[in-house]
Amino acid sequence: MINAEVDKTTGNNATKLADEKSEGDDQFVGLEKSPKTLGFLQKGPTGVALDNGSIVEIKAGSTVELLNGEMEGKLSAKEIEEPHVPSIEERENLFSKYSFRYLNPLVDTAQKEMIWHHHLVPLGSDDHCGKVIKRFDVQWEKQLARKAQEKEKGVESNNYSALLWAIYFYFMNDSTFNFAACLEILARGSLFVTPFILDYIIQYLQGKGEQGVWYGVILSLCFGGCIAISGIAENRMQALLARISFNMQASIVGKIYYKYFKLSPDSLAKTGTGIVLNMIGEDTQRIFQLMPIVNYLWSAPLQMLTVLILLSLLVGWAPTLGSLGVLLVVLVIMRWSNDKMQKLEGQRAKLMDKRVKFFTELISGMKAVKLYAWEEPMKEAVEVERKKELTRILHIYLLRAMNVALFNMAPVLMSVVIFYIYVSQGNDLEPALVFGTIALVGLIRAPLIILPILQTAYNSSTVSFSRIHDFLVLSERKEEERKEVSPRPLANSALPCVQLRGAFHWPTGGKPIGKKEKKSASPSNSTPKSDSSADERGGNDNMKDMKGETKSSSKPPFTISTDISIKPGDLLQIVGPVGSGKSSLLSALLGNMNSGRGDLSQLTGLVSPPIVKRSLHGRIAYVPQRAWVMNKTLKENITFGHEYTEEKYRKTLWLCALEPDLKQLPQGDMTMIGEQGINLSGGQKQRVALARAIYADADIYLLDDPLSAVDQHVAAHIFFCAIHTYLKDKAVILATHQVQFLKYASEVAVLEKGKTVAKGSYESLRTSHLSNYPQVQKSKWLSEGHSIDYVSAHKTSSETEKEQSANNAKTDSNSINPPAQVSKSPIADQKASEEGGSEGKASETKVDVKGDAAKKPAYTPQQGLPLSVHLTYFRFAAPLWAMFFLLIFFILTQVAILATEYWLAAWTGDFFNQSESFYMVGYGVLAVVGAVIAFSRIVLYAFAARNASKNIHDGSVNTLMDATMRYFDQTPMGSITALFSRDQSMIDTFLPELYNVTLTLLLMLIVTLLAVAVIVPWFFLAFIPLLFVAYRMQRYALPAVGNIQILNLMSLGPVFSFFQESMSGAAVIRASGREKYCLTQVEALIDTLNNAYYHSQLMIKWVDIRMDMFSAFTIFLCALIVVLSKDSLNIELAALVLTFALSVGALLGFIVQIRAYMEMMLTAVLRCDNFAKNTPRERFNGAIQPEKDWPSSPSIEFENVAFRYGDGTDSKGPLVLKDLSLSIPSGKKTAVIGRTGAGKSSLTAALLRVNELADGRVKIGGDPVHDVPVRMLRDKVAVIPQDPVLFTGTIRFNLDPFDRSTDDEIWETLRRVQLKEVVENQHGGKGLYSPVRENGSNFSIGQRQLFCVARALLKNSKILIMDEATASVDYATDAKIQKILRSEFKDCTILTIAHRIQTILDYDLVLALEKGKVVEFGSTSKLLENPKSYFSQLLTEEQKDERKKSDEADAVEKKSITL
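Given the sequence above, the corresponding structure tokens read:
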């Protein structure tokens, strides 16, 4: 709720303030004013318009001025703080906090049902992502200012110090973190008391003093009590750090996300979606994983220092200094290896960036990969980079191997040196001294065990800190270029609201994120601005450096030179051939291009070089050429966070011809739209995007050819009803290929090669610059009357009555209602009533996404992680015999350590009656042998871990390439991308280290328990029931732990998906100023994820605290048995047992902590394994192996074909093709027509075995396609899809990834499709090896479509399938493509899903489909001769429209406003 006050200084217009709550992305105050326009509401560069009688929206916290001659005033809005909501633990008492008893209901619930988000306790208000980001942002700005001051003073600091200090001052310089540090001191201090208690117990066993049994019992209680206190403090500390961890990750992720929308064009050229996703998924995760062990950064050195001080008190300074020497050698080696690993980690991170970025593109373009049969070259491209990454990973593993071996043997080597020096000084070894020393030195083992994990986390996090910092300090757009609410222009103002004057060019890129400056040996090593570099060898290495620096280039970047200016009410239409720069001009308006020098000589009306100017006054709505939709309901896609108004919403649906489509969707406008609009056709997606823009009620509309993806009659309806009439008071810029609408433009601009070569009215340009467009010179291909037929056909009788009565009444000039019913032919009646637009891909090729089906996880929650997950990892690592051999080395390492400690007991008790030198040499030999075994074991393990990473990744890649298209339609991209980024990073980086440490500790525990059982059998008998109780307790907690862990992982997928989705639509979001709306969505998703994570960590602590109590009781029990067996035990062996018992407690604690940490990492293996096992795969094999020149006769036959979509197991799904039989002779061109859902795309899907047939057969050249290997089948058929796809890499790779064609052949093909000059002029001058940016963004959609035609030509196939392939190109380019088809594919069998009727009039055959059945099939001429044929009636309808008189068309245009 907002409180607002008015300070009116002058004016005579009454104002009234109203408090109201907005449902948008902010809370607003409403200003109700007199019915008179007051002008602007202005705040610096931002503001909102005051319209006649409207409610003014003012951002919370803003101060604005009313600027008009009559009235000035100030209005301030102040947001009231939300009430404080306590966090989970703030609600509990002290005992419940430290015992985690408040989680008991959750554990009980898990025994009965699955745990979902509604079972979890909501986060406290202080932990909400939005608040955390705001507080962190304050610290970040302070640290940036401090660093700037230091730089001015010449003070040097590391390149990420600002980020480190911001994190420190916000998260670590508060009471929570300080209290956690105190708990760490308490936990470690309690452990340091245990060696002294052990010394007292040994003295008691030796009979020193007159104390009774009660004294020994008290010592035993103290012995176990110290372990209990340590466990309580440790678990409480970890719970506090978990809360800090998720808040820190939320703040950094939110900051990265919001920063992305502020980046300048140059900064955007240095990044890519893959890089940002990697930072969000991997880099923040590494920093996040450092937090639970951050206290060890200072406590580990402090522990070692404390041990050395206590050792000096026990054995003197000389032995202590000797042990210090050993420790220093270990630490020096660790520092050296740390530097090496940090360098290797940085290299690995860059390689992973490229790999993940490529996977992002690969997944989004998987349909193209399947249809082109490009699976193998794509796998090879991934393997090339993966091998480089694995090489770095192996080197890192080997360095860790050396460190871990030293860390494990360091306590033994220190003991050898201590006792050697101590004995050489003439001292005798006594049991109390020996085992007290071993206990103290053993305390060093804890920090040394954690050091490899710390080292790994530190190396990874420093690289991540640097990369994130470099991203956060990238240059941003100027404030006026990224404002969310611009000053709105006055209606009917003569002043321009849009101006673009000068030359603008795409940024040329630069040094990528996290990449050091590097000198290049020659200019040829540099690359142009791109997200990938060209491989000089050829096209196979398509993932070279994403953004190399351009130090010298022969070709400049693409430049736009223009001078346009429009005011409210103007309609500027921009035309030009493919690649002329229409989309770039709109990008320049949106601030996505840099201003610079260009050829301005041809700009109309310029007599001198102009001053570069770019200005937009008003709210902007942008519709890109490639429609962007969100994974939300259709209604949410249209409203886009704006306040819902029923009347405006219904009118928007009608204007965009979406009402008929709602009837086709399973839940109407509440149907969930899948990722990338998988359950919408191309035209439906485009109309939803246009509806979003119209509903926003903007002042400026930038429309990038939205009519190309829709049918002509739909395009006419949208143009006349929406663009030309409803938006008549708006400033509209329409880039278009639909030249039939040019006569209605206020002004027409003609672009060629980035230059505005002409600008003026339609009539003035018609006979000059527009003469190259045949549709301008001919009679109109589609008239407005046809649009009336279309829209009227969708009206119900009740609506018609309303319209008729409305026509007799006086209507508001600003309103548009559906037109009255007019007569139409039967074919139009049928078509209009059932069709939602036949544009784009038929909806039958899509999956109906209901509710959360679009967010369906890759797997469902399980009752904890099964043992099979561990076995799966071992299976990937090495064969069974090799793993058994490796296990023997693990066991031998622990036996060697146990042998050295037993040798000490023998030494102090002189078990073998030998000299001091005998024991001393034996002790040294055992220590060296143990070190050699440990090193050998860890080297073998490094290779096994590398194999596991390689095999898991290879298995995931193979599964990805083999998966059915339905899987990609059903599964969110974020979930799949997370497998190859976050999950693979866990498997590569952390999991091997955790397995190594866990196996080491587990075997150490087993060997130690066996030794204790041999020496004190009574302890073993008492320990078995305790072990059973602990096992049952863990089994009881396992469902809750496992459920919440996997719920945590399930919550990650939607976050990744939304990031990826919103970044792909960043241009739309930035233009419309909806960054905060999207950030609000992200905050809600992150809060859900954080709550699941926090509960998962608390649940682990619930188990840990109980296991720690079990450990403490075990130690107490062992000490008590030893004390009670005082008279029957050998003193030396009793001391050894107590030492072992102490290590058992420490080992149990570490195993429990690391096990939980490791299980969190193992979920990555589970996800990858589930992905490999459960993902439905295509059937690749065939019964026959055709010859290379197959098919000899490219005829196509369908025999009683029944076809449904599914994974091969769904036998109950609806049939989309039913009993379809037809025969297409060799060399014939066949056009397929029919409405949406008729089965057009299903025809090609059945032909290419996208799914197996339910019944019948499809033959090519007489061979059943189900007997032909599927990749050979697809390789022999050329496909030109509706949505062109280019991948990051080189132009050559994108045309011929198999390297089957020579460079000359490719150049000749590019010449034939008129792309040769485009490729030659690529910035950098590398020709075929010029880089293709992410998603082919350095080419227009029309150019990308021509590249697809070039692919088909290079294939030299005998069968060609075109799926509305010319929808995104202009008429001239369409004509060129048709000419190419007639000449180059004259002997081919062509199957075309028609989009423009004119393009199929010269086809041999026409196939009309309806509801999966053949309506008619025959020669084009015969069908045209039959006036009752479907095709003939359709053509007759269009010819009638062409013959309509121009005065009738003008009348319709004038009447449209009232209709």
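The chain has a mean pLDDT of 74. Try to locate this feature in the token string yourself.
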